[in-house]
Amino acid sequence: MYAGFVFACLWGYRKPFKENGMAFRRKALWITLLIGIIYGILTEIMQEFLVPGRTGSVYDWIADVIGCIFGAIIAYFLLRDRNNLKNEALDK
Fold first, then answer.
1. CA spacing 20 to 30 A to 58: which of 7, 49, 68, 85?
2. CB-CB contact of 56 with 42 (8 Å)
3. How many structural domains is the chain composed of?
């Protein structure tokens, strides 16, 4: 679920990803990952304290984080523009 969440968030940035530089891509990636990680923490806390019969777990949160990272990796490979990335690497 979290891989899909992060992928969908980054997919919404597909046009700006191609128009803006690497700094924008990194910023969008880190913000999206941070939102996913915080959302995972909040859902575990809510499960522990607000939902009867459910418990929050650190291991579930770790699985959420892994899902976020996996979604970001998939989005990176599908959204990258090889020509722009090569040109930016040569400019540095």
1. 7
2. no
3. 1
- Structure-token pair, residue 23: 């700094």
> 2 and 40 in contact (C-beta within 8 Å)?
yes
Dist. CA 34–CA 2, nearest whole Å = 12
- Model pLDDT, residue 61: 94
State how far the Cα of 92 lies from the Cα of 28, in Å rounded to an integer: 21
pTM: 0.77
Q: Can you read off the two tokens belonging to residue 79?
A: 């959204």
Let me know if 56 is exposed, middle or buried by CB neighbors in 10 A (0-12, 13-18, 19+).
middle
- Are 27 and 16 within 8 A, CB to CB? no
The predicted pLDDT at position 24 comes to 81
Q: Which domain holds residue 32?
A: 2-91
Whether the CB-CB separation of 65 and 40 falls below 8 Å is answered with yes
- What amino acid is encoded at 81 in this protein? D
